[in-house]
Amino acid sequence: MKFLANGLLVLFSTMLLTACDRMTTPKLDKPEASSSQTTNVPQSNATTTKVTKQPALTGDALYNSDKAPESLLYDLPKPVIENVWSAIGALSPITYANSGHNNNLSFVITSEGVLVVNAGANYLLAKSLHDEIKKHTDLPVKYVVLENGQIHAAVGSNYWQQQGAIVIAHEDAAHEIKENKFAYLASVKRRLKEKAEGTVISMPDETFKEERIIEMGGVRFEIRHLGPTHSPGDIIVWLPQKSLIISGDMAFHQRMLPLFEHTDSAGWLQTWEKFASLQPKYVIPGHGDPTNMNEVTLYTKDYLSYLRGKVGELLEKGGTLQDAYKIDQSAYMHLPTSEFLAKRNAGQVFQMMEFE
């Protein structure tokens, strides 16, 4: 029995490592990530789009994997283009194993200092990101921009403020942080235990309504709120000289996006047109590897359009909420988190469209 147990343990470990290795970074200069598996996604306008199927982490591999065990970061920062780096987060919800690093933590190095996008989910995670930044530059982190007011974007702010950085957020994101600060801290402590040490909830130093421009070291950062998207106060960081957008939750890649009670899916599609009009060459999404507009369009705009189209058909036929849960989302079920988000997303869209 002892030999059998050891053999099973080795087999499980091998399978887990193989699953983690399959999540590869798509080449940025191609319109679609290379893959032998594709599927047609039905669109509300009766056209079809090829969706690239990414092999998905599931089960224990999704919730307990860690690509950088020597760091609290789920994975270490990787270069995207010159002087732009991103530490790509886990595609699962926040877990003890990923230390709260389940979104993308990015930074841009200029000749005068560093701008970071997302403070991280806790004090020690923010420090771990800073430790990695110091490996690439001795310059200080001058600004930390929060993509929204969610835990993984904002709760590590107190670390950066101790380092002298200015934390910037949209006014709606700041309101969300203030409204949920006690719940946020309790959630982080419950999920992350000792990894939450040093974490306190602090408010942004600066807020804005529509746009905040930063010129630093010859780089122009346009921090913009384009309109309703995934959650209150979602912003993008546009670097026009580099044709690169750090999109936050404006755009998703390689995982299913979640729709919340406050998510305006119709407004998100309208906002998307402003986003797409910038025509960036490179996109660092809120979740998933750095990629291009074709890929984030598939996993964001096209998914929202498909879901709203199917719900619209249901409503015309007098369908119910229970019917919405049965909408065929098989073309997207290869995405991590789809197993518990797909039905919920359909229900959220149905309940919103009932009153549009």
Condensed summary:
By secondary structure, the protein is α/β, with parallel strands linked by helices. The protein has helices at 2-21, 59-64, 123-133, 151-154, 157-162, 171-192, 265-277, 293-316, 321-324, 338-353, and strands spanning 38-42, 48-52, 78-81, 84-87, 105-109, 114-117, 141-145, 166-170, 206-208, 211-216, 219-224, 236-239, 244-252, 282-287. It has ten helices and 14 strands.
Structure description:
The protein has a single domain (about 55-305), classed as 4-Layer Sandwich (Metallo-beta-lactamase, Chain A), CATH 3.60.15. The chain is α/β, with parallel strands linked by helices. The model is unreliable at about 1-55 (pLDDT under 50). The protein contains 10 helices and 14 strands. The strands form 3 sheets. It has a 7-stranded mixed beta sheet with strand order 3-4-5-6-7-8-9. The protein has a 5-stranded mixed beta sheet with strand order 10-11-12-13-14, with helices on one face.
Determine the CATH superfamily.
Ribonuclease Z/Hydroxyacylglutathione hydrolase-like
Shape: globular
- Give the uncertain stretches in residue-range form: 1-54
Number of strands: 14
According to CATH, what is the class? Alpha Beta
Query: Taking all residues together, what is the mean pLDDT?
Result: 87
Q: Looking at CATH, which topology would you report?
A: Metallo-beta-lactamase, Chain A
